[in-house]
Amino acid sequence: MGAPGCGKGTQSLLLVDAMGISSISTGEILREAARKSSPEGLRLRRIMASGGLVDDNTVCDAVISRVRAMELASRSLILDGFPRTVTQAKKLSRVLEALGIDPPLVLHLDVPNEILVQRLSWRRQCAACGAIYSVASGPLTRCESDGGPLIERADDNEEVILKRLEAYEAETLPVLDYYRRRRDGNYRRIDGCLTTAEIANDVRGIVLFDGTPVAA
Ligand code: AMP
């Protein structure tokens, strides 16, 4: 978990590579749904372009149907960008409890707002594989691993970035409190200002030490 631009997507991809854990990103699922030229696609495009959050029912249904369709390599799963509201977090707790699965290990990548705004405006993403790059140190146009074109996300402009940070503060910070306060809470704060490699190291250490994956 963490604010837009904190490195959730990057670290999630690295964890998938390093540990073979499956991952789902609600942002990616919703962007895919928003590309459809249906009234629902248009509704999602409008919400996401405004920097607001998509309603809880749509997001929870999308997560549940994606998880059902996945062949999980183990019973561990990375949820990138979910839950983002207390309603989503409570729903997740109920579902996990009903399935007899441990409460989530919550990794919070903590980054100050001024750094987030800068990182998001420099961010580019491979249209083919989703790899994330920064143009901070010079222009980049192609993905290093598959040569796919690097694109700027439609919601990575300054006006929308500020709206996304507002939504994060209003809706998602309370979720971090929810996990900090739960008796069975497994909340860990990670300094998201370290280098990508240092953060990946911290993440792997915590997942190996505290992840307690349930045997398949
Ligand atoms: P992300 O790729 O995680 O930055 O998400 C991009 C956009 O998708 C967000 O700004 C929201 O509009 C929407 N979104 C992603 N995940 C959620 C969620 N869990 N709840 C509500 N909206 C979400």
In a nutshell, what does this entry contain?
With 216 residues, this protein is α/β, with parallel strands linked by helices. The protein contains eight helices and seven strands, in the order H-E-H-H-H-E-H-E-H-E-E-E-H-E-H.
Word description of this protein:
With 216 residues, the protein is an alpha/beta fold. The protein has one domain: Rossmann fold (3-Layer(aba) Sandwich). The chain contains eight helices and seven strands. The strands form three sheets. A three-stranded antiparallel beta sheet has the order 5-4-6. A two-stranded parallel ribbon has the order 1-2. Strand 4 and strand 5 form a beta hairpin. Helix 1 crosses helix 8. The relative contact order is 0.19. Bound molecules: adenosine monophosphate.
Name the helix and strand elements from N-terminus to C-terminus, one letter apiece. Answer: HEHHHEHEHEEEHEH
Shape: globular
The secondary-structure class comes to alpha/beta
- By CATH, the topology is Rossmann fold
Distance between the termini: 25 Å
> Biggest β-sheet, characterized?
3 strands, antiparallel
Question: How large is the share of residues in beta strands?
Answer: 5-15%
Which cofactors or ions or other ligands sit in this model?
adenosine monophosphate
Gross CATH architecture: 3-Layer(aba) Sandwich
So what's the CATH class?
Alpha Beta
> In total, how many domains does the architecture comprise?
1
Q: State the CATH superfamily name.
A: P-loop containing nucleotide triphosphate hydrolases
Uncertain residue ranges: none
User: Overall pLDDT, averaged?
Assistant: 91
